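Hello Y.,

Per our agreement to keep a running log of every chain we model this quarter, I'm adding this entry. I've kept the format consistent with earlier entries: sequence first, then predicted structure.
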Amino acid sequence: MAEIRKSSSKMRKVDLDQQGFFLFFLSLCSLFIGMGFAQNNTIPVNVGVVLYFNTPVGKMGWSCISIALSDFCASHGNYKTRLAIKTRDSRGDVGAAAAALDLIRNEEVQAIIGPRTSTQANFLIGLGEKARVPVISFSATSPSLSSFRSRYFIRATLNDSSQVPAITAIFQAFDWGEAVLIYVDSEYGDGIIPYITDALQGIDVRVTYRSIISQSATDQEIGEELYKLMTMQTRVFIVHMVTNLGSRLFTKADEIGMMEKGYVWILTDGLTDLLTTFSPSEIDSMQGVLGVKPYVPRTKELNSFRVRWKRKFQQDHPTDEISELNIFGLWAYDAVTALAMAVEKVGATNFSFQRTTILSNSTDLDTIGVSQTGPYLLQSLLSTKFKGLSGDFQIFNGQLHSTAFQIVNVIGKGERGVGFWTLKNGIIRKLNLANTNSNIYSTSKDNIGAIVWPGEPTYVPKGWVLPVNEKKLRIGVPVKDGFSEFVKVTWDTSTNATQVTGYCIDVFDAVMNSLPYAVPYEYIPFGTPDGKPLGNYNDLIYQVVLKKYDAVVGDTTIVANRSKYVDFTLPYTESGVSMLVPIKDNKSKSAWVFLKPLTWDLWMTSVCFFIFISFVIWVLEHRINDDFRGPPSHQAGTVFWFSFSTMVFTQKERIVSNMARIVMIIWFFVVLILTQSYTASLASMLTVQQLQPTVTDINELRAKGEYIGYQQGSFVLGFLERMNFDASKFRIYNSPQQLANLLSKGSANGGSAAALMRYLS
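Predicted structure for the entry above:
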């Protein structure tokens, strides 16, 4: 019995297992049937992909496109449309156009994703416009590929010109005044140059040189161009080129010593975004380089995608070294997502082409049809908005727009962020896109983190150095015997070297040192080796016209005849002509000098007022005041004594009448002013020397035939000749001592009655 029960239990267990397996099989069959039914109800839409699949960017782009298609189908299973990808390998610029033509004519694709470069995209734009097929590029960044040339060109990436304000902000932060542009000779390289040149000029930064390097340039040709840049004074270089050429450029620059102290290298985003594709040796040659690139917010979705992308890339290319995912891959992912969403919005329509009539003499371009859904798909793409891996995805004027750029510094084995730039706030240390309250635009270098410059200096490079072999400016200076406060030239007879000093030289040196760039110059004395002048100031200035000197520095005056030939700077000190004459001392030696402070009219007026005041006081006081009574002679004496004693305020008679008191108050004030003025004038006459010029009018000298002096080489000689002075009456002086000697001798004793003295000549 036990064996029978055991056997029955086993049979029931087998039956239950068979039933479970049967139910699982039915469920699996139902799932596959449902999926097959769903797939049979989706509409495939042909989409072409034109990439150079053998390049790192091509491989990365295709793997991102594949993942995007898989993710979109998995998350949008209810959509009625599916993208059917048709791939073509571009291999070259012309190959890209041929591949696109084949896709449009034979596969009737409704959109094309790619190509990789701006040059290739330039070939495809015309095809897309003719066939009404949107061409969506995630890596063609040249500003010349403007969507205004073709409505059907969609740039699912940033325009290169969008990074220009970030680069100019860096120049403003570090106050660099010059820049050299180094770029590749291609559609990609040429596109950004007008934008960045205009932007730099807008902030007073001069582009001193444009270095154009061919894509096929050899290492020797790159080295020759770099050696040429070394001889120039500018040390700030903006590099805009493709990765393979950029890596060779920096390798050569490191070899010849252009990654040392004093150099500044700034990369555009085309190189900065692809730094992860550079080898360790190439990164070592780029230490200290600055770069800008679009900011990509870090999200969980992005981190998950990076892991999945590495896994797929390793599966597809097991022999290739895995590099880091860059922003071009993210844009490729977002471009496919946007296209799939746009196709679904167009709906289950007839995705077909209208064929054209083929004639016997028709070209290949004439044989392509016109997409019937192209205009609707284009409008759907332009209105598509979503949160992508690279950030907010929305097409404005046919291209993406970035809200922020990141400033990075190449250090060690890779890059390190040192700041951000936004259109609203300029350079900032930390980015907070959620905070939009601040409207302060800043270009302060304090908002940038610590930067390791090439050569690791402890200071910010000034951006220029003295050039190695550049021509120096020849600055002419006057040579003269005296008046060396403005310019003084001394010769060293042993070395035959000259030393130029003086106030004018100090001013010129200060101006040149304040320039934001180096200008080499040397002083050339306008004289003989023994210290004699070669001519006057007019002759010196005319050397500029003869191009023997580039400029003249010295005590030169701006006059009309000189301004016809040369330009002058603004005056930095007062200029003019003054006449120096001997003086005579008018100090009086008379014993009656005490009468000089007042004129005779004032003396007589004062005496009359003393008498008048004495009479007024007598009239007001003699009736009521005993001090003013008595015999007539006594009254007269008292009145006059009282009046004159008020000069020293020693009167002893009382004043009783109020009217008399008012009169005396006024009189005391008058007497006080009179006595103080007299005292001051007399003290001045007795102590201060009374000097008067012997001549006050230059025309008086000419009329009397007096001798007049002037400084040798000065323009004053021409001034005297124009005033019709007799040339035989001229005396020349070269120093203050000679001038003093002429004036002390006088015109009659071999000197001069006066001398014209210039502040500047």
